[in-house]
Amino acid sequence: MSDMYKPINDNGPGQQPPHQSDSYxxxxxxxxxxxxxxxxxxxxxxxxxAGYLIYTRxxxxxxxxxxxxxxxxxxxxxxxxxSRFNL
Length: 87
Prior knowledge:
Elements: H1 22-25, H2 30-56, H3 60-85
């Protein structure tokens, strides 16, 4: 057999291609991965809704203090990124 007719990666008839190895088959089934992803999304939605309900019931002075803390944190992060990238 000449090199021109030789199969690539010696995957002749009856041999599995490299992308269908045993390690590929041991991963989680796609339906199980999808259900875990859906569960994570639902739990995240519940947590954000609970946080919003708590936030809406805060008195104005607590909201203002929270806004100041978030602005301060955001400013420090932006300044840190600017210093890293020399902007």
